[in-house]
Amino acid sequence: MLSPTDLAQFQKDGYLILPNYLSSDEVASARKQITSIIDRFDSSEVSVFSTTDHSVTSTSYFVESASRINCFFEEAAFDKQGQLKQPKELSINKIGHALHDLDPVFYLISYKKELTVICHQIGIEAPSIAQSQYIFKQPGIGGKVAPHRDSTFLYTNPPSCTGFWMALEDATLENGCLMAIPGSHKSELESLRFVRNAKGTETFFIGEAGPQWNLNQMVPLEVACGSLIILHGALVHMSTPNRSRKSRHALVLHTVDGAAEWPADNWLQRPDNLPFKILDQQV
User: Fold this and answer.
1) Which of 45, 190, 261, 276 would you label with 23, given CA atoms 20 to 30 Å apart?
2) What residues does 256 pair with on adjacent strands?
3) What is the pTM of this model?
4) Local confidence pLDDT in tens for the 283 residues of the chain
């Protein structure tokens, strides 16, 4: 899948764009299946997702999503009375975090042989998918994703998190495409980590944040529908709010190396009956 030039580019920048990773049929099946999931979702169970105010996601519903398919609303989806301003399908921020293991359509897309090959090429010894997210970036209300590094949220010892971001629609500056600081993955990972309490009822940060990042160094990662963006776990990246009339659907997988230690206080913990699966054993 990856040429020597691709690998050199990934090592240099900390990200790599691969056009046409998903076929048009795979994109269509993902979009159709997510519509079915939303139709079955009871919108009276309100949970909001935010990357700027983590207190609103610090709930058991969020923690339990590690082994479920849960829906999270946009912060701006509700009026002052707490009612949705528009239909639920236009109000959801994301769905996660076990789509890849619990839904048959997303299982097929997630456990593609190509992903296993890529993981081995970039040096992941025993790749496994820790979480999956369907991101909507809703028109007009799609929230900002603050600058972050994925290894802060999915920490292993040694760090091994890698993101696989698949565009299910064109992602542009207009509708809030990803943005990243090239080469930022080469700087030391700060001690900041996102963890859960022993009861699994809330999440919070521990450790110290690193120095402020120079956001003027951010470059847009505009891609066409079907493209894959590979993101090093230490790469600093973000996305801006979507104030356009176009959504920006994407499927995001985060892999970790099964050969690395998965700390018991990581926010994401799977029950014994739903362990992480090694990709090589699924294809």
Assistant:
1) 276
2) 128
3) 0.94
4) 899 999 999 999 999 999 999 999 999 999 999 999 999 998 776 556 555 554 445 578 899 999 999 999 998 998 888 888 999 999 999 999 999 999 999 999 999 999 999 999 999 999 999 999 999 999 999 999 999 999 999 999 999 999 999 999 999 999 999 999 999 999 999 999 999 998 888 899 999 988 899 999 999 999 999 999 999 999 999 999 999 999 999 999 999 999 999 999 999 999 999 999 999 988 6
- Which DSSP symbol is given to 267? S
CB 90 within 8 A of CB 249: no
Place of tokens 């998903």: 22
Q: Which alpha helices (H) appear in the chain, and where do they start and end? A: 4-13, 24-40, 60-64, 99-102, 104-110, 113-121, 150-153
Could you tell me the fold of the domain covering 4-266? Jelly Rolls (2.60.120)
Write the DSSP assignment of 40-83 as a string of letters.
H--TTS--B--SS-GGGG-SHHHHHGGGSEEEEE-GGGB-TTS-
Q: Which two tokens stand for residue 172?
A: 């542009």
- The domain spans of the chain are 4-266
